[in-house]
Amino acid sequence: MSQKYVNETRVMKISRVFPLDVNNHNTLFGGKLMSLIDDIASISASKLCRGTAVTASTDSVDFLKPIRPTDSVSLESFVTWTGRTSMEVFVKVMTENLYTGKRDIAATSFLTFVGLDDNNQPIPVPRIIPETEEEKKLFETAQQRAEMRKIRREESKKFADFLLTKYPWE
């Protein structure tokens, strides 16, 4: 089985917050941030498997601080853990006030991706090797998150059986 260092999957993106990106509270739309998170995480996932990687789940997005038009928003993503065909990608969202230079962690997110071949079938992905303290901490705690994902997925499948597929007017 091949392996890669976490750093080989690292991606950075810095954006400005424009007036059309904010809601009536003058903070970045949550959906806009979620789109940026999925975009950057997919690049990290593809860098690991050097092919197609699709989002299997957005496991969490924790909004910690508001992001305002006076901020730049920096996203950093990297693969933190791998299974046989799946991988966990972590995204750290940081703001920098463009007037003061003050930086804050504004959000964190974990996503799961699956590597696919040309026939859209899951493929084995390289094992990941953490090096920094941050990478090691995320790697060490990943198995617990994977177990929680598995439980949540099974609960979601059971719950889906109770949901209606009819439109309200039918």
What does this entry look like structurally?
There is one protein chain. The protein is α+β, with helices and mostly antiparallel strands and about 170 residues long. It has one domain (about 5-160): Thiol Ester Dehydrase, Chain A (Roll), CATH 3.10.129. It is built from three helices and seven strands. The strands form two sheets. It has a five-stranded antiparallel beta sheet with strand order 2-4-5-6-3, with helices on both faces. The protein starts with a strand and ends in a 10-residue tail after the last helix. The relative contact order is 0.20.
Quaternary assembly: single chain
Side-by-side strand order of the widest sheet: 2-4-5-6-3
> How many discrete domains?
1
- CATH class label: Alpha Beta
Strand content: 35-45%
Approximate helicity band: 25-40%
| Outline type | globular
**Spans of 5+ residues with little confidence (pLDDT < 50)?**
none
CATH fold descriptor: Thiol Ester Dehydrase, Chain A
How many DSSP helices?
Answer: 3
Largest sheet, in brief, is: 5 strands, antiparallel
Please render the helix and strand layout as text.
Blueprint: E1 3-5, E2 11-16, H1 30-49, E3 52-63, E4 71-82, E5 86-97, E6 103-116, E7 127-129, H2 133-140, H3 142-160
Parallel strand pairs: 1-7
Antiparallel strand pairs: 2-4, 3-6, 4-5, 5-6
Which terms would index this structure?
single chain, five-stranded antiparallel sheet, 170 residues, alpha+beta, Thiol Ester Dehydrase, Chain A, two-stranded parallel sheet, globular
